[in-house]
Amino acid sequence: MLWTDLMMGLNRLRGLGPPATLWRLCLQCSPAVAMLDRVPSALGVPPLGLVALRLSRGIHGRGDQTNHAAGNRVPCRFPFSRVSKQDLAFFENLLPGRTIVDPDVLMTHNVDWMKSVRGSSELLLRPQTTEEVSKILKYCCERRLAVNPQGGNTGLVGGSVPVYDEIILSTSLMNQILSFDQVSGIITCQAGCVLENLSNYLEERDFIMPLDLGAKGSCQIGGNVATNAGGLRLLRYGSLRGTVLGLEVVLASGKILNFLTALRKDNTGYDLKQLFIGSEGTLGIITAVSILCPRRPRAVNVAFLGCSSYKKLLETFQCCRGMLGEILSAFEFLDSACMKLLEKHLKLINPIAENSFYIVIETAGSNADHDKEKLHNFLEAVMASFLVTDGTVATEDAKIKALWSIRERVTEALTHDGYTYKYDISLPLEKIYQLVEDMREYLGDKAKNVVGYGHVGDGNLHLNITSHSKDQALQEAIEPYVYEWTARYRGSISAEHGLGLKKRNYIHFSKHPEAVALMKDIKHMLDPHRILNPYKTLPDQG
Ligand SMILES: O=C(O)CC[C@@H](O)C(=O)O
Ligand SMILES: [Zn+2]
């Protein structure tokens, strides 16, 4: 079979919808506001200092009940100070026009994009420079004011919004690219740069970001690094722990740590920047990063394939690694339950015949003919051996985007299905789908849908469960069952999303008590007054 025959045979794309833009819309606009409008106002007694400044329509209050009201188990508020008139005067002097108390603006910053966690902050600060962040933290540390660092607010574990009245420190205005070296491919930029803007900037210069996520239109690089986000290209380019070469971080005391080196190799003592990667803003606020970027591949192909069983999917993966080798850049999957939700809620069209599992394979290389030949041989092999029953291939940009959007928009489709319980699990590859099947059987008709998708190439399953509305009994049935199951196979209960507020108390399923104790010591050393992103990452006890 020739490449063209194969393409014609496989290509049965039937007018797929546009790429994932709705995600971006959801994050930036009204749904969060609409939900908050249903929250009863005057949730508590407002702090005296702010009464005079408050607009009459505010839902603001002490807010100690907001997360409790939403059914989130949160610890009691730590004895932080409350923002006073004097504090406000200090911030207004430091950040004129960027010290925000407008309740309408604060609403969107107080709630996560899934609308599952809600804080009651009354103050949003928008620094533009590292020095401003340093002055804010020094002041907050002295005054014992808690601070919630916030990037694009696209996190999935409640780590990016306040729990009570923490001051929100947004990095959105820290969005400058500081330098880019064409030879080494190292970009240095401020933390608030939106991932997609960085990608566009680099693509114009024939490079790409080593990281790609469904939330790229809103998420910011500082937040990506703070959560050690994985995404769709990790299989090829590795995690941010490898591609981040340098960081600039402001500690709780206001001290600025400048590790903004651009060296590939540096074994001079402990690699301190690693402490901040994945620490979810609990140890310091990342203000700038330098990242090693790969060259933009000259040829990109995407194959969307169907498999009748998970076993066959894994065999396809093995074959794929062997035959595609260095040009393989992604191997992702979704199950048929995900496909049904995409069809039902987003009206996406399945481009191939119905199957139990769907795979998205991407190749990225420097020689189109060479890559085509390899992909052709691989597709021929998996079809001849009946590992794959149907498929389609895209080489043009628009079709590549359309195929990718099927995988990228699963999260969005789930949000339309009801309340979503999200689990982000690392497991040995052969166990990944067994968890979904066991969970389906175990929950029976208690759940509306139990679906599995994720990054097969990285051993990372996204197990998502939906119910008509938030159901405490269902959550208690799922947890700790899902974590015990994961621990039995020595998996991780958070592969790439972090622990945030929602998963902090389950850390023991993946980490020994000694490790957790050491984490607490490190936290105490770097942030003795616990002002940075309190109630997140570390467990309440133990
Ligand atoms: O929504 C989720 O559970 C996963 C989101 C993201 O990590 C993805 O891989 O699509
Ligand atoms: Zn993911």
UniProtKB/TrEMBL annotation:
Cited PROSITE patterns: FAD_PCMH
Main localization of the protein described in the UniProt heading: mitochondrion
Keywords: FAD, Flavoprotein, Metal-binding, Mitochondrion, Oxidoreductase, Transit peptide, Zinc
EC class: oxidoreductase
Any one GO molecular function term: (R)-2-hydroxyglutarate dehydrogenase activity
Keyword Oxidoreductase: yes
Catalytically driven reaction(s): (R)-malate + A = oxaloacetate + AH2
Keyword field contains Cytoplasm: no
Top-level taxon in the UniProt lineage: Eukaryota
UniProt-listed InterPro entries: FAD-bd_oxidored_4_C, FAD-bd_PCMH, FAD-bd_PCMH-like_sf, FAD-bd_PCMH_sub1, FAD-bd_PCMH_sub2, FAD-linked_Oxase-like_C, FAD-oxidored/transferase_4, Oxid_FAD_bind_N
Location(s) in or outside the cell: Mitochondrion
Pfam family, one: FAD-oxidase_C
A GO biological-process term: malate metabolic process
EC numbers for this chain: 1.1.99.39
Domain FAD-binding PCMH-type: 117-296
GO CC entries: mitochondrion
Requisite cofactors: FAD
PANTHER family according to UniProt: D-2-HYDROXYGLUTARATE DEHYDROGENASE, MITOCHONDRIAL
Family: Belongs to the FAD-binding oxidoreductase/transferase type 4 family.
Function: Catalyzes the oxidation of D-2-hydroxyglutarate (D-2-HG) to alpha-ketoglutarate. Also catalyzes the oxidation of other D-2-hydroxyacids, such as D-malate (D-MAL) and D-lactate (D-LAC). Exhibits high activities towards D-2-HG and D-MAL but a very weak activity towards D-LAC.
Name this protein carries in UniProt: D-2-hydroxyglutarate dehydrogenase, mitochondrial
Lineage start: Eukaryota, Metazoa, Chordata, Craniata, Vertebrata
